[in-house]
Amino acid sequence: MAWILDEYSNFHGYSPAVVTGKPIDLGGSLGRDAATGRGVMFGTEALLNEHGKSISGQRFVIQGFGNVGSWAAKLISEQGGKIVAVSGITGAFLNEHGKNKDGIDTESLLNYTKEHRGVKGFDGAHPIDANSILVKDCDIFVLCFFELRKTRD
Ligand SMILES: NC(=O)c1ccc[n+]([C@@H]2O[C@H](COP(=O)([O-])OP(=O)(O)OC[C@H]3O[C@@H](n4cnc5c(N)ncnc54)[C@H](O)[C@@H]3O)[C@@H](O)[C@H]2O)c1
Does the keyword ATP-binding apply (predicted)? Predict the structure, then answer.
């Protein structure tokens, strides 16, 4: 991105607005890691507001717990949303009842995934079949996974 900024500026004069993802010291923005997940949270809140509701008290299922999904889950939880189920490529978890009535503790799931490179083995919720996440009861389903494709057969 620094290279693109540099090349563009060679032709058009210094143009820091030309591209996102620049290094901070070249005019890049802080908070990029969280930006997309934060956008999911703001967009969801705006949609709910249009229907006279808010994130607080709604029950969410999140498919995909990478950069976008984990930030969305954390920020939605902070707004009072209840994360009832989460899936990653290595597994899925439900926590509607039982251990934690407030839903999945996204902070501990995030710490777990950083340490174990995936959600598999997380013991703060009940493991479920990954595909079943699509039919779990919820108010809002948030799709945040990254399709893995075969590059060549
Ligand atoms: N990161 C961004 O700023 C950004 C911006 C715009 C759009 N997106 C889009 O958001 C989506 C997620 O991106 P990301 O940056 O979080 O990627 P990521 O690689 O950080 O996370 C993707 C996650 O999806 C999970 N996953 C893969 N297959 C799955 C499956 N079948 N079921 C459940 N989980 C599965 C992986 O375990 C991984 O945790 C992508 O489609 C991406 O193109 C991301």
Answer: no
User: In angstroms, rounded to a whole number, what is the distance separating the alpha carbons of residues 84 and 102?
Assistant: 8
CA of 10 to the centre of ligand 1 (A): 35
Q: Which of 78, 2, 1, 3 is nearest to 34 (CA)?
A: 78
Ligand 1 proximity of 110 Cβ (cutoff 6 Å): no
Summarize pLDDT for 76-93 with one digit per residue, the tens: 999 999 999 999 888 899
The three state secondary structure string of 68-88 is HHHHHHHHHHHCCCEEEEEEE
What residue segments make up the domains of the chain, in order of their start? 1-30, 31-143
- Percentage of the chain with pLDDT > 70? 93
**Is 88 a pocket residue for ligand 1 (Cβ < 6 Å)?**
yes
Answer yes or no: is the C-beta of 37 below 6 A from any ligand 1 atom: no
- List all residues 6 or more positions away from 26 whose beta carbon is below 8 Å from its beta carbon: 2, 5, 16
Separation in Å, CA 104 to CA 11, 38, 151: 51, 19, 35
Query: pLDDT per residue over 53-66, tens digit each?
Result: 999 999 999 999 99
Mutation pick for ligand 1 pocket among 70, 132, 146 (CB with most ligand atoms within 8 Å): 146
